[in-house]
Amino acid sequence: MSRDDEVLHSLDHYETALRRVSADFASRGAAVEPIGVQLGEMDGIFVSYRVTSGGGPRPYDQPPVPGDRRDRLPGVGALPMVTTVEEAVVALADTLQEKALEEGDTAWPGCRPGHPHPPTPRLSAGTAVWSCPRDATTLTGIG
Questions:
Q1: How many Cβ atoms sit within 10 Å of the Cβ of residue 90?
Q2: For position 106, what pLDDT does the model report?
Q3: Do 97 and 105 touch, CB atoms closer than 8 A?
Q4: What are the backbone angles phi and psi of residue 51, rounded to the nearest 5°?
Q5: Which has more confidence, 57 or 38?
Q6: pLDDT at 109
Q7: The pLDDT of residue 60
Q8: Parallel, antiparallel or unpaired: strands 45-51 and 32-39
Q9: Angle of helix 3-28 relative to helix 85-102, nearest 10 degrees?
Q10: In what order do the strands lie in the sheet with 78-79?
Q11: Element holding 4 (H helix, E strand)
């Protein structure tokens, strides 16, 4: 498969995954809302999101302002190439959870009782799930 084909297939997977991740984040009251994925420069795939707890659009939802930190750190928010929708769901959930944590949402979506850390998105038997990073227990499917 050519690099162009790989990028376009990944983009298709991310567009499908976006609906699931968006529904999952909304149902859990996440501090960020994914609103789109797009092809950027150098074949990078980026996710657009907005902060739901106040504030305006965030990176890749608007053109960068000259001199803005995003101009100096290309690739922030860039998503990896994937071969399945489930891989895309995990990558999107991971990237967006990081953004939610940066917005001060320290325990979203919450792990198990008594666990102060958030769950980790991962693949389990080929399915995207939230799992406990301490003991790898599957908590729930993503989306």
A1: 25
A2: 62
A3: no
A4: -85, 125
A5: 38
A6: 60
A7: 44
A8: antiparallel
A9: 50
A10: 32-39, 45-51, 78-79
A11: helix 3-28
User: What pLDDT score was predicted for residue 63?
Assistant: 44
Q: What is the pLDDT of residues 61-98, one digit of tens each?
A: 444 444 444 433 223 467 999 999 999 999 999 999 88
Closest CA to 33 of 46, 21, 16: 21
Taking the alpha carbons at both ends of the chain, their separation in whole angstroms is 29
CA gap 36, 21 in Å, rounded: 11
At position 118, the amino acid (one-letter code) is P
Two tokens, residue 45: 């795939």
Residues 6 or more apart in contact with residue 130 via CB below 8 angstroms:
93, 109, 119, 120, 121, 138, 139, 140, 141, 142
Are the C-beta atoms of 12 and 84 separated by less than 8 Å?
no
pLDDT tens-digit map of 8-46:
999 999 999 999 999 998 888 888 888 889 888 777 898
The token pair that represents 106 in the structure block: 């320290």
> DSSP string of 65-111?
PTT-HHHHSTTTTEEPP-SSHHHHHHHHHHHHHHHHHHTT-TTTT--
Average pLDDT over residues 114-128: 92
Tokens 């994914």 -> residue: 34
